[in-house]
Amino acid sequence: MKKIMIVDDEPHVMRMNEKILKDKGFETVLCESGNEALLVLESGVVVDLVFIDLHMPDGNGIFLIKEVKKRFPNVPCILQTGALEIPENEADSVLKKPYYWHELIALVNKHAL
Predict the structure, then answer these.
(1) In DSSP terms, which residues pair with 79 in a beta bridge?
(2) Which of 11, 42, 64, 82 is most buried by a 10 A CB count?
(3) What digits encode the pLDDT tens for the residues 90-112?
(4) Considering its fold, how many domains does the chain have in total?
(5) Which structural domain, as residue segments, surrounds residue 35?
(6) CATH code, domain with 58
(7) Tens digit of pLDDT for each residue in 32-48?
């Protein structure tokens, strides 16, 4: 079973994504901050894909993407954002908020299967 990490400071976004992914047979790991995500990954939890929100209280998602790519180069990262302008980044894909569930699943299928 593929394991997907969701990093977002908005609980309703995390729960919605978790439900969509679990309904499609994926396991999820939820983190409310970039620091928490790095701690979980460094503890040995292996994930197949990470969805990362752009704006979080402990920093931005761009920094987290760089750290994940540096420490775990084989893990694809998807940047989630509602921002009109997306800063240059190393994400494998971008998911613009708001989005439909099938857009989320299409990115999982593209990057984690």
Answers:
(1) 52, 94
(2) 64
(3) 899 999 999 999 999 999 999 99
(4) 1
(5) 3-112
(6) 3.40.50.2300
(7) 999 999 999 999 999 99
